Amino acid sequence: MTSNVTAVSYGLNMTPAGLEQLRSVLASHGAELQSESSAGDSRYGVQVLDLALPDAAGLAALRRAVADAATDGFDTALVPSGLRSAARKLLIMDVDSTLIQQEVIELLAAYAGKREEVAAVTEAAMRGELDFAQSLHARVAVLAGLPADVVHSVRKEVKLSEGADQLVAAFKAAGHTVAVVSGGFNQILEPIAGDLGLDYWQANELEIVDGALTGKVLGAVVDRAAKEKYLREWAAAEGIALEHTIAVGDGANDLDMLGAAGIGVAFNAKPAVRAVADAALNMPYLDAVRHIARV
User: Fold this and answer.
1) Which of 37, 90, 161, 217 could cross-link with 286 by S-S, CB 3.0 to 4.6 Å?
2) Structurally, what CATH architecture does the domain formed by 1-85 represent?
């Protein structure tokens, strides 16, 4: 039984030779080209190839083959046509180093003179070498005693990833749902979520007592299991099938969420995440996700 799939290629340098290599790989795995079109803008190119596969089971093998081909200058996402044509979709994103350019815990730690120390722990956690919850508690502990006003200072330092606002606006304008879930902090995320008009958002809560950070977080840590849980909860609340969800993240704590979504996109991610995600986006423009999802 045939299966309809779309190959969406995107990158800064989409050469004719590279695209021809991609077509060759697709054809060698039985993918029949139905139509082809171009998109993108002055920042990056997009090539869309609508395909018919001999059977749905071949999608995983085809993804591996396309990833192994390693075409220079662009990446390719293989997206089930049912997701691209769905009337309602849910986009869920990580925050630090995905929706925004920075790691907030590192910005906070700079005020305690501990930025490099905390950055090293963050990198190890994102590579999957440390338990995320334990590493978060250790990193937050260095903030103990800082005045709560540092939160406001850090808010001013945060910058959205390039194209993040366009991506959210496009999904919202098309009637889709947009959510973010973060191992960061509500005190930073709340105004961002409000400005972007996000439908759902969740992060950790820094404990503040007598106008100072205590070096603790309140309640359970938002870890990789929690991220998947929120994806499932929010999709169910909106009546959106999991196969019509798109998850985007960069670190090991995003893996469960990326795996549960209809398609998981590794955004400038750690090698361990790129190796298992359905698709990789290795350029700074987050709005390329809209081409993957056809929004």
Assistant:
1) 161
2) 2-Layer Sandwich (3.30)
